[in-house]
Write a structure and sequence with these properties.
about 475 residues; single chain; 4 strands; mainly alpha; four-stranded mixed β-sheet
Length: about 475
């Protein structure tokens, strides 16, 4: 007990940061499921909870799990089985993982530098819009990032048993985990040589032994793929492979994603300052080998991750992992360049204010990387309650993709009467059309200008809107 109290006292500032973070997030936990967490992950987790937990390839409903490794679905469904289908508690599950991630980042940076550097990085990480928003959403990116940070920590410590554990959990969470493992393999083969230039024969033997350890999780992922091929008939979900890009010109165009990591949400100021500090430290030879190599590993991961994203279907939320690594890699050389605590406090306050502006005050957007998603959810709730009051159960209703899930699955949290609406497909003639601003629909202009349909109701919040068009009754 005495040791626990001592540990809490030593890390009181970290605990305070996490407590403030939890207080800021508490109002988001009751929000209905949004976007990908609604139509993909929540539906899959509820299905797994209902029909039985699944962990191995080919188990569960592959149409819902989309051929992904099942660890995230399994743990989420286990949480639901233990604590119920409460939206608040499911989002709390994600938030708890986010808190563990912050602790993991703290101890990784503390291992590389100092406690105060770790506190600065955790503080500024919390204020990243993409982290703040996704920290409570039922999405795998937070868990994926947690395993990467724990894997990096075990790699830095050369704790190979923990490395095997966390890297295995990584590839069992999502396929993109192989990018982090590939980065470490390149680090061990190339960066180790560049930074230390081993020449003795026994070091070559040691390197080969470590390489065998490092590729164990890749072997596990290969086994997963083989089992999936045997049970499901494909290695990767066919719909996903259709989105893959191999044309060099298209990949180059997609690499504009780089701006979302380095320049979006005020990070451009951090990026420029970080480059200046790296140049300063290298010029003064004040950047130690361990830190230099770790920063190089981080940049390598970011570049490989960007390349991977540019070759596959992309959503902005996928960049969470790269942003977390960017925050660590860019702030480390800055805090090493600052001579005293007062300067570090000033840096933290300045960039804290910059990131707070982009997170809480900049014009929000209706995506799962901006707090604007909250307004969009409330707008959908308001519109769906209006639809329920109209009693449209016997009418043919057309709506955009997400609205079909929001109105059709009570567990997602939008229906006040818990009575699902079965929305018809595009082959029917409809009595009612529902359009949303954050889902572009080719039929919108046609219906909006069609005299047979009248705008019944429009709901708006900032730039977001939802419109209901009703077919006019022929007076004859």
């Amino acid at each position: 007990m005495k040791n626990i109290l001592l540990c809490l006292k030593r890390h009181s500032l970290l605990i305070l940061i996490i407590l403030v973070f939890l207080l800021l997030k508490i109002s988001y936990l009751k929000l209905p499921f949004f976007w990908d967490e609604a139509w993909s992950y929540a539906v899959a987790v509820f299905d797994m909870n209902k029909h039985g937990l699944a962990f191995f390839p080919g188990q569960g409903n592959t149409e819902l799990t989309r051929g992904h490794p099942l660890l995230f679905y399994f743990l989420s469904a286990l949480w639901v089985k233990l604590f119920g289908e409460s939206i608040f508690l499911i989002h709390l599950f994600s938030l708890l993982i986010s808190c563990v991630l912050l602790v993991a980042v703290f101890f990784l940076v503390k291992k590389l530098d100092k406690k105060e550097s770790a506190l600065i990085i955790v503080t500024l990480l919390v204020l990243q819009p993409i982290f703040f928003v996704q920290s409570s959403l039922l999405l795998p990116e937070i868990m994926l990032t947690l395993w990467i940070i724990l894997m990096l920590h075990s790699y830095v410590q050369k704790n190979w048993k923990l490395y095997i554990l966390f890297s295995s959990l990584l590839v069992l969470t999502k396929e993109t985990g192989i990018v982090a493992i590939a980065s470490i393999l390149i680090d061990r083969i190339l960066l180790e040589y560049l930074f230390s230039k081993p020449t003795r024969s026994f070091e070559l033997k040691k390197t080969l032994q470590q390489l065998v350890i490092l590729i164990i999780p890749l072997g596990l992922f290969a086994v997963f793929m083989i089992i999936q091929r045997i049970r499901s008939g494909w290695f990767l979900f066919p719909e996903h492979t259709n989105f893959m890009v191999f044309d060099v010109s298209e990949i180059k165009n997609n690499l504009v994603l780089i701006k979302e990591i380095f320049f979006a949400d005020g990070r451009k100021y951090l990026f420029v300052l970080s480059l200046m500090c790296i140049s300063f430290l290298l010029g003064r030879k004040k950047l130690d080998v361990q830190t230099s190599r770790f920063i190089a590993l981080c940049w390598l991961f970011i570049l490989l991750y960007l390349l991977f994203c540019s070759m596959n279907f992309f959503a902005s939320r996928y960049l969470l992992t790269a942003v977390v690594i960017f925050i660590i890699a860019s702030i480390l050389p800055i805090v090493k360049s600052l001579d005293n605590t007062l300067m570090k406090i000033g840096f933290t306050l300045l960039f804290g204010l910059i990131f707070m502006y982009y997170t809480f005050f900049k014009e929000p957007v209706a995506q799962d990387v901006s707090i604007g998603y909250k307004n969009n959810i409330l707008l959908h709730q308001q519109a769906i309650h209006f639809a329920e009051d109209l009693n449209l159960s016997n009418q043919k209703i057309y709506s955009t993709f997400l609205m079909q899930y929001y109105m059709g699955i009570p567990e997602l949290g939008y229906l006040k009467n818990k009575k699902p609406y079965i929305l018809r497909n595009k082959s029917d003639i409809y009595d009612m059309y529902i359009f949303c601003s954050n889902e572009k629909d080719t039929l919108y202009n046609e219906i909006a200008t069609n005299p047979e349909y009248k705008l019944l109701k429009r709901f708006a919040n900032n730039k977001d809107w939802i419109e209901f068009y009703r077919k006019q009754i022929d007076p004859k």
